């Protein structure tokens, strides 16, 4: 006698079929746990590398900023030095020109001494006339030198040379007046 086969209701069969379909759908949207864990480890490693690179970039950025500040300070310092040197250069003239001016001053001083000696020993109208012309020439030369001085002599040297020229100019004017007075007296005596 065969054993009786239990009867399965259609409702139970439909429920089982629905559960199988539901499990299939869930499996489609899932991955094996081992694969998920491996992906999670890779993600954690990537996040760690990003943080490391971010820290390294921040450190490099700090160094670059410090270097940039240093470079800017150096540039400012160099710019200030360049401006200072430009001002120094603008207040100076070549040594050769200054030496030439000093030589001319010495020469003019020598001519004044010679003129003084000539005045002390001369009595003729012709010699007095020559002395007067020499004094005028010397005055003109000193005026030219004064103009040159304004164009090219620097600071302390300029002030010293200017004082010398002013002194020489005053001496020349005094000598001119003395010569003119002597010429006038000589002419009056001859008349």
UniProtKB/TrEMBL annotation:
**What is the organism field in this record?**
Cryptomonas curvata
Q: What is this protein called?
A: Uncharacterized protein
Q: Please tell me whether the keyword Coiled coil is annotated for this protein.
A: yes
Do the record's keywords include Coiled coil?
yes
Coiled-coil intervals: 36-185
Q: Which UniProt keywords apply?
A: Coiled coil
The highest taxon in the source lineage is Eukaryota
